[in-house]
Amino acid sequence: MESLLRSQPGVIEADASFLSGTAVVVYDPGRTGPKAIMEAVSAKTFYRVRPLAPGEAFVPPARTPWRLYAGVGLVMMLSGGIGFAIWRRRKQRGRP
């Protein structure tokens, strides 16, 4: 995304973040503007873009707490592995 933005005429600097879904673009208003930059991004990617209004704060979209899901998955894998090890040992000893 950054290289696409920087390749646009009039763009001085671009810093994009995949995690936050944002890009900060510094441009020369005499050579380009938000509309031209947004059209270039829309034409070459599937991203939906919009400029922030002056004074508008960026509010990131709500995200699924991935740490919670990772923790639950880890607990499930560990408990399943321990259960399998107990079952296998009991089977080797001839117990049901």
List keywords for this structure.
single chain; 96 residues; alpha+beta; Alpha-Beta Plaits; two-stranded antiparallel ribbon; 3 helices; rod-shaped
Report on the structure:
By secondary structure, the protein is of the alpha+beta class. The protein folds into two domains: 1-62, Alpha-Beta Plaits; 64-96. 45% of the residues lie in helices and 14% in strands. The chain has helices spanning 2-6, 34-44, 66-92, and strands spanning 11-17, 22-27. It has a two-stranded antiparallel ribbon. The radius of gyration is 25 Å and the shape is rod-shaped. The protein starts with a helix and ends with a helix.
- State the distance separating the first and last CA atoms: 59 Å
Alpha plus pi helix count = 3
By CATH, the topology of the largest domain is: Alpha-Beta Plaits
Strand order of the largest sheet: 1-2
Our count of domains comes out at: 2
The helical percent reads 40-55%
- Principal-axis shape: rod-shaped
Number of strands: 2
> Which CATH architecture of the largest domain would you pick?
2-Layer Sandwich
Oligomer: single chain
Please state the structural category: alpha+beta
